[in-house]
Amino acid sequence: MFGAVLNVFNRVVIPRVDLFTGYEVHANVGLALLGGVLVVAADERRKA
Question: How many angstroms separate the CA atoms of 47 and 16, rounded?
Answer without folding.
Answer: 39
